[in-house]
Design brief:
Layout (H helix, E strand, L loop, with lengths): L2 E4 L3 H13 L6 E3 L16 E4 L8 H8 L3 E3 L1 H8 L3 E6 L4 H14 L4 E5 L17 E5 L2 H4 L8 E4 L13 H13 L6 E5 L3 H7 L5 E5 L13 H16 L4 H10 L8 E6 L2 E5 L6 H8 L7 E5 L9 H9 L2 E6 L4 H8 L5 E3 L3 H11 L5 E4 L12 H15 L2
Parallel strand pairs: 1-2, 1-3, 3-4, 5-7, 5-8, 6-7, 8-9, 9-10, 12-16, 13-14, 13-16, 14-15
Antiparallel strand pairs: 11-12
């Protein structure tokens, strides 16, 4: 049977290493657009194809191959088939990385044999040799990893869910169907935690055969280093999951309160002449930008946003701007006109040609005590490979500006 690896990024390379170790007689064909512009041609000739999450499952060439009987798998699928111990899977539209990391840290601090992977950290299959019967693996699972996954975690966590990645998914229905795979194959002894106040999160959870556990924001969780109501909400989810795992509350609270946040997620870069600059470059949809805006009540704010359009509605940003103290929104990138139209009646906007000029415009408009937030609310910019690159660019410019 001919085998192919479709997409040769981090996960594709991990699959190749795994197959070499476990199936030495197989020589996979590498299919990647960087190697061959016609890499999607003739997929029907293979018996099994290991798809990387960066290659959309709904591509016509892939769907044609599926109809011809070609089997599709992935690094995540391989992991679920062979992993020992308990798997905790975290999905949602925002907060996945923070919540996944916090669950891992809480369990680690409680003395569990726990590992972190998936859409954050190492590809999951690289963890397999370390796992034992009592091990716990905490996985961040994106819609692209879940889309054709035929397994579900023992403990599924569904954070807030709303439309996203509509440039890669056919529509919001397909996006939600992908998210639903996290519970599709759960058994009666499994668990699913969900946010009771989010309609989509609840709808997905209720389809599970496992025990459903609703989670609501906890006002008693205070003094977090990471700002924003959305982070307090995610902390409530971490607490609920940790309590189910019988972690002492003292350990949970100590971990939550000491956590300083992940890079590129509403992270304070520097204070320049009394103006605080926050890097929220991991924000890839309007809802996350809205959450960033609402994280600093009673402060005048200047927002830098824009990028590659993902066919999303910017009404959530407009609603947040209407209720908050927004001094200016500096816009640039492919979708700046779309953002301008959405915010026209609720906030002043000003276009910029690039990130450097956007930061300069924001700083000129700011006064001591103001907050500048770089929260794109969109996909990566043309001048950057991904949000990490644009986040580093923002940080570098701000630090250079401050000397």
């Amino acid at each position: 049977m001919k085998v192919a690896i479709l997409g040769f990024g981090q996960e594709g390379k991990a699959v190749l290493r795994f197959l070499k170790k476990t199936q030495s007689g197989i020589k996979p064909v590498i299919l990647d657009k960087k190697r061959d512009s016609n890499y999607l041609k003739n997929l029907g000739q293979f018996g099994i194809i290991y798809r990387s999450p960066g290659v959309p499952y709904n591509l016509p060439q892939i769907q044609s191959a599926v109809k011809k009987g070609v089997k599709f798998s992935s690094a995540t699928d391989l992991f679920f088939k062979q992993a020992k111990g308990t798997i905790i899977g975290v999905t949602g539209t925002k907060g996945k990385s923070t919540t996944t990391t916090l669950i891992y840290k809480v369990l680690k601090n409680a003395g569990h044999d726990v590992y972190l992977g998936g859409n954050i950290g190492k590809p999951a299959i690289e963890l397999l040799p370390k796992l034992k019967k009592k091990s716990i693996t905490v996985l961040e699972l994106s819609s692209f990893q879940l889309q054709d996954l035929k397994h579900s975690p023992h403990i599924a966590i569904i954070l807030d869910v709303f439309p996203d990645h509509l440039d890669a998914h056919q529509d919001s229905k397909e996006y939600l169907a992908a998210k639903s795979n996290i519970i599709k194959n759960q058994k009666r002894g499994d668990l699913v935690f969900y946010f009771s106040g989010n309609k989509q999160s609840k709808n997905i959870a209720l389809k599970s055969k496992g025990k459903k556990i609703a989670v609501a924001p906890d006002k008693n969780i205070a003094d977090l280093k990471i700002p924003g109501e959305h982070n307090r909400k995610n902390a409530a989810m971490v607490m609920a999951v940790a309590k189910q795992s019988k972690v002492p509350q003292k350990t949970i609270l100590k971990t939550l309160k000491s956590f300083g946040g992940l890079p590129h997620r509403l992270k304070l870069v520097r204070t320049v002449k009394g103006v605080k600059f926050y890097n929220d470059s991991a924000s890839t949809n309007p809802e996350t930008t809205a959450a960033a805006i609402m994280s600093f009540p009673n402060h005048l704010k200047i927002i830098i946003m824009g990028g590659k359009d993902k066919n999303l509605d910017y009404e959530p940003v407009a609603e947040a701007a209407y209720t908050e103290n927004i001094k200016l929104v500096v816009i640039f990138g492919e979708n700046k006109k779309k953002i301008q139209l959405a915010l026209d009646k609720v906030a002043k906007t000003k276009p910029a040609k690039d990130l450097k000029s956007a930061i300069k415009i924001a700083f000129q408009a700011a006064k001591s005590g103001d907050i500048v937030i770089f929260s794109p609310g969109a996909a990566s910019f043309d001048m950057f490979k991904n949000y990490k690159d644009r986040g580093k660019g923002f940080t570098r410019i701000v630090k250079k500006m401050s000397g």
